[in-house]
Amino acid sequence: MTTKTIDVCLSPDLMHLYQVQDRTVVVVDILRATSCMTTAFAHGINSIMPFAKLEDCLAKKTEGYYTAGERDGKKVEGCDLGNSPFEYMNPELKGKKIAFTTTNGTQAIAKSEGAQEIVIGSFLNLSTVANYLRQGTNNVLVVCAGWKGKVNLEDTLFAGALVELLKDNIEPDCDAPLMAQHLYNQGKKDLVGFLQNSSHVKRLARLNIHKDIEFCLTPDQYTVLPVLKNKTLSL
Amino acid sequence: MTTKTIDVCLSPDLMHLYQVQDRTVVVVDILRATSCMTTAFAHGINSIMPFAKLEDCLAKKTEGYYTAGERDGKKVEGCDLGNSPFEYMNPELKGKKIAFTTTNGTQAIAKSEGAQEIVIGSFLNLSTVANYLRQGTNNVLVVCAGWKGKVNLEDTLFAGALVELLKDNIEPDCDAPLMAQHLYNQGKKDLVGFLQNSSHVKRLARLNIHKDIEFCLTPDQYTVLPVLKNKTLSL
């Protein structure tokens, strides 16, 4: 049996270096797009359609979608929802469809197009994602959403958590997964503390959303696995 | 006084994200281009002209240059020199000019063009580079050569060493320098051991050059600071 491999793309701007057509891609944007998506599905949303462009997202309003939009950490005016996971616990959203656009997360999904399969990862569904990858036959690529092309610590830590959890089954391919694993092992005892100097946490702290940050860094709150099919995320 | 900042570009393929015209750029390719360059200057070479393209490098042979070429870790046929630092200790090279091309390092230099100043960094001249940056007034960008666009551990560790050495004087800008610093602090007691699973060390180990790896990871063997001026490196 050939060993499966796991690689990590630390920024969407490095996607041209990776072949994805035979891989399962895990898209991650811990603060906060993929954490919101995980939360939404755990609370009974029907589906999420991710958009890279704001105008495409807003256009879905006329088709009965709730719209969710974030740019630069803030909710976009005119959207029904922003980018805090707590908004997605609202029972009113049960069974509904959401059109979703964010600064980084939905861009990373768009750049992963062409992958054999695309799933959504966050600390909130960490073990569920890891179990799914362990059972699958595909090689894995974790795509970190980063911040406007730059790498970020929180997405890298999540990638490292997957590499660590899968180390007996899936082999790291190249240095990025090793770097992520080292960082995760250094920070795992106190992820919030480890991240406190990171740029995005500082950015979000200015927006006064400590509660969001703590929640998004809490592993295994949910067991849902959002999967992209026909440009739509569902369970 | 405004605090100076240090950022780290983990791959030349991310250079479009960084403004360089007002920065001092430190180009690093630990295994082995910038380690060779540092060694060459410490042993009395006159100048090094870096080339991204092999044919441009070879063309300098007729102008009295020694040619140094590496592709995929191996010396290029027809070149006078390869990419082992020990070759550059040869007393015959004293006072001579070298035209130099490598898989990653000289590409990273080419992509740094337009910077206010470009210097060459390696563990071999680590403290000299750090002192120079500390005394200067420019913000700093460390450009890691990586491996064909992908990030690598050894260049990231060097970037982290600079961030750590300069932490009282120059502030990390964004998450990449923090990540590099964390990794360096984790690995600094035994850099060779920390790197033993990395992809480039495995690649080089197959070429049987352990001695090169150990030497390139040894801090502060030299006090030279190669600087790029008019497309040529000199002291």
Descriptive notes:
The structure is a homodimer of 235-residue chains. Chain A has 235 residues and is of the alpha/beta class. Chain A has a single domain (4-221), classed as Alpha-Beta Complex (putative 2-phosphosulfolactate phosphatase). Chain A has helices at residues 33-42, 54-59, 105-111, 126-135, 153-165, 175-187, 191-194, 199-206, 210-216, and strands spanning 4-9, 23-28, 47-50, 66-71, 74-75, 97-101, 117-121, 139-144, 170-172, 227-229, 232-234. In chain A, the strands form 3 sheets. Chain A has a 5-stranded parallel sheet, sandwiched between helices. In chain A, a hairpin with a 2-residue loop joins strand 4 (66-71) and strand 5. The longest helix of chain A has 13 residues, at 153-165. The A-B interface holds A 10-11, 13-14, 16-17, 147-153, 156, 172, 174-176, 178-179, 182-183, 186-187, 197-200 and B 10-11, 13-14, 16-17, 147-153, 156, 172, 174-176, 178-179, 182-183, 186-187, 197-200.
Assembly state of the chains shown: homodimer
Largest interface: A-B, 28 and 28 residues
Number of strands of chain A: 11
* Main sheet: strands, sense, barrel of chain A: 5 strands, parallel
CATH superfamily of chain A: ComB-like
* CA(first)-CA(last) distance of chain A: 30 Å
Count of domain modules of chain A = 1
Order of helices and strands of chain A: EEHEHEEEHEHEHEHHHHEE
**Low-pLDDT regions of chain A:** none
CATH topology of chain A: putative 2-phosphosulfolactate phosphatase
